[in-house]
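hey so i finally got around to running the thing on that chain from the lab meeting. sorry it took forever, my laptop kept dying and i had to restart like 3 times. anyway pasting the input first so we r on the same page abt which one it is
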Amino acid sequence: MQGPSREDDEAERAVVSGIEGWSILVTGGGSGIGLATAERLAADGAHVTICGRTEEKLIAAVTRIRTVAADGASVNYVVADVTVDEQVAGAVSAASAVTGRIDGLFACAGGSFHIGPVVDADVAAVRATIDLNLMGSVICVKNAGAAFRAQGTPGSIVLMSSGAGRFPHPFLWAYGVAKAGICFLAKTAAEELGPLGIRVNAVAPGIIDDELMSFITGGGPLLDNYIDQMPIGRVGTVDDVASAVRYLIGPESSFVTGETLGVDGGHHLRRGADYSLLFPS
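ok and heres what got predicted. didnt touch it at all, straight out
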């Protein structure tokens, strides 16, 4: 007798529980968007494992997430660097160990080590930016995808891109190049992994009020430049992005893959922010 198909399994999970009982790994979950998303997922009943490089930050984040987690939802952490293949494999295994399988991944870890003109590029800083953002995402997709394939179950991966990866932001080009690669990674991985029931999407936030962007959101010409180029003229919140990730990772988006969802107040309709304003002549 033939067992239930992958489509039957995914449909049943969508109808019965949303993401309740799912095991989801969030990289970069110790702060900012990663932390807010981990809180949202746990509040909706998912077992959440966060990872990052700083244990003290992860411990504090786990304590915070547990205060909003639904009854029965566990919250755990593992120290891991997303640029190290073996450490990401270990993080995926840790998330899988909670329930015996992994159901979702939000690859949020990222950052920028370079701001400035191309002709004055600090090659080491550019390389580090691409390694953390793009290669870190590649390594996450590799390991989560392999785990889903081994389980023979559907899975959902959400990657962290940026508006800087979709349209030019002068002087922020190194970060933008890495984030543009993530948009294309989402498309390519979605094409390859779709037949296995694995969806891959990305979010592309604009200016968000978190630790990473506090040097801009505190005020000044660059913040004004952002707001002037946004139909919805306000700074975004980490919860704005968390809601988008929750949609893309969950069964509500079961027919969506290979997409990059802008969460930027319409910034993508105009032009990118001009980071040369950080270097007044």
